[in-house]
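Before the break, one more example. Copy the sequence into your notebook; we will annotate it together after we see the structure.
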Amino acid sequence: MERSSKVSRLVQQENPGKQKEANDKTQDGKLQVKQETTDGALTDQNVMAGEALDRRNIWEPSVYYALGKESFYFAGHDISIRESIDTYGALIWPGAVALCQFLENNQQQVKLMDKAVLEIGAGTGLLSIVASLLGAWVTATDLPDILSNLTFNLLRNTKGRSRYTPQVAALSWGQDLERDFPYPSYHYDYVLAADVVYHHDCLEELLRTMRHFCRPGSQTTLLWANKIRFQSDLKFTERFKSSFNTALLTELPQQDVRIYKATAKE
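Here is what the structure looks like once it is written out:
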């Protein structure tokens, strides 16, 4: 680094014109890299937007697609979900449907009856609804602007059907966790997460949130389902595996969806 600085000073002294030209090229290069990074981010966002608008009946017979509304049949009940295309959090993604199917089909392996369950990034609430219908005491969390639609869907589909009335709470990943969800006052048997990893800038905060609720000695089990879309998803998966004791419960190659079980490393 020191040698490079000396060379730069010598070039500037010998030929200021060439130095300016070199600086311009360097600046152009930086702008090009920045533009490529921005283009990459926009491409990832376009992939997500395209996926949101192009979902079809790949989950038949459990799922029937209609614009703004989706109908499901889980745990012996018809479920109607109100969606919005205004935000990713108000859409149903493949990971949520896959985890719902897994929970319904593997009730001996994952016993939710009378268990305290937390969902992070609950979105439209489908997964929390199914967990409630399977007998769990559920707290569904997401960002404040998601909660209105989330609450609507939860109450609409669990009233008179579920053993416990599901709760809704605001949770921003990585923020004020000790204040709003202090351990062990807020202890859960299971933490559910579906399609929480995609193109966003909060992956570190998400991992911190997972660690907060699934900590050594808590005996909390984390179930995470996700469709693998981007290279960043794979990088997060490696960090996830290094942070917890993990097992791949199932993989759906056609949908690129994986479901992991994780517990804290002691």
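Residues 142 and 170 are 5 Å apart (CA to CA). The chain is about 40% helix and 25% strand. Try to locate both features in your own notes.
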